[in-house]
Design a protein that fits this description.
386 residues; alpha/beta; Rossmann fold; seven-stranded parallel β-sheet; six-stranded parallel β-sheet; 16 helices; 13 strands; globular
């Protein structure tokens, strides 16, 4: 039996790297039996993803395909059919390798929180062939659901939700083939590496921000004004260093853009630093986060690194995933910030609460984290059921 990961993509989203590595540890399989479809094998080799799974490059789009797709777009106006034409080219050569003895691990993460996409195409394709599939480590909110997504969710052999709020949403739609385990990234250990110089100057506040929570690649949104209040408070009222930690480097989602804007606007006294995440893999970034005094995270897998190393953390979210994970590990509501429905001074208030309760929050995480991580390993039981 082999396991196929068609939605791996690549590690320029360090969350994709983390899920692939964590899943390999949970499944305890030789990497020859774990096959991941990858859009950048050179990068994933550098990140050592291929120490855990076998990487298979996605087919490059030929000139003939580009011409056919252009014609198809001109005559077909249904958005899903147009997407499916592309997905057929990208995914069917990979999926056609699978037999009925194999299992698709659809590393869902939050992919079902956005537009209808390749998660739907791949499970539908394999369901018609009678091949088992698991939506692995997913989060899905009520507002994310569409009729096509609901149909796809029912086609999965099993669903592994990474927090209980998603299980509740799915149960409301009579989708009950669901188990809850922590995100597979929780099983990973930090890899020691050289710390940035800012750690030798004073305690460090780690901050990760994305275009999703900021409302775009600028500093003009309502949430950006709350970030403004937070940054000014740290610089004017404390001695902390600030380390901005990019975690997704994909084009169109690159966290470095926001980080550079913030450093350019506020760093008049060299207390704001940007981590060179491009040259670090996920577990190395986790090590650096583990040395921060506290952490503020927008990207789920950046926050998971902080939680897993017992660092007091503010979860910034715009969807069910951040709320669900924070709830399940017992984080107080005061340090879960909704970037879309932000209240004036809410982020600053959350930071002050974090500082006041830092010791008790860290102690709580130390008390529960070992057993919480251990639950990840129980996800192997899904395979036994199938």
């Amino acid at each position: 039996m082999k396991y196929y990961f068609p939605i791996h993509l690549n590690g320029d989203n360090r969350g994709c790297e983390a899920i692939a590595k964590g899943t390999a540890l949970i499944l305890k399989e030789n990497k020859k039996n774990l096959i991941g479809l990858c859009t950048n094998t050179e990068l994933d080799h550098r990140l050592k993803v291929d120490d855990y799974i076998t990487l298979q490059p996605m087919c490059k789009k030929s000139i003939l395909f580009r011409a056919e797709n252009k014609i198809y777009k001109s005559i077909i106006h249904d958005a899903w059919k147009r997407k499916s034409f592309i997905y057929h080219y990208e995914y069917t050569p990979f999926l056609n390798q699978m037999t009925k003895d194999d299992i698709m691990i659809s590393t869902g993460g939050d992919t079902m929180c956005y537009d209808e996409n390749q998660v739907i195409y791949t499970v539908d394709y394999l369901h018609k062939r009678g091949i088992h599939s698991i939506l692995w480590g997913c989060s899905i909110g009520e507002k994310n659901l569409t009729p096509r997504k609901l149909q796809a969710l029912k086609q999965f052999s099993h669903i592994y939700a990474r927090e209980t709020l998603t299980q509740e949403v799915l149960a409301n739609h009579n989708i009950n083939n669901v188990s809850v385990f922590p995100d597979p990234a929780f099983v990973l250990e930090p890899t020691p590496c050289q710390l940035p110089k800012c750690f030798s100057r004073n305690e460090v506040i780690g901050i990760n921000l994305s275009n999703y929570v900021m409302g775009g690649f600028d500093l003009n949104s309502a949430f950006a004004k709350e970030v403004d209040s937070l940054i000014k408070f740290i610089l004017q009222s404390t001695d902390y260093q600030i380390l901005l930690i990019p975690h997704v480097l994909w084009k169109g989602q690159d966290d470095r853009i926001i980080s550079n804007l913030i450093k350019g606007k506020y760093d008049l006294n060299n207390r704001i630093n940007i981590l060179d995440s491009d040259n670090l893999n996920y577990c190395q970034i986790r090590y650096i986060i583990s040395k921060c005094y506290c952490f503020i995270g927008a990207r789920t897998h950046a926050a998971i690194s902080a939680y897993s190393t017992c660092i007091p953390t503010i979860a910034i979210g715009y969807s069910i995933k951040s709320k669900g994970i924070a709830k399940d590990i017992g984080m107080p509501e005061e340090i879960i910030v909704d970037s879309i429905n932000i209240r004036k001074n809410q982020l600053l208030d959350a930071f002050c609460h974090l500082l006041n309760e830092a010791d008790s929050l860290s102690k709580h995480l130390h008390n529960i984290m070992d057993s919480y991580k251990q639950r990840c390993k129980n996800a192997i039981g899904i395979i036994d059921k199938l």
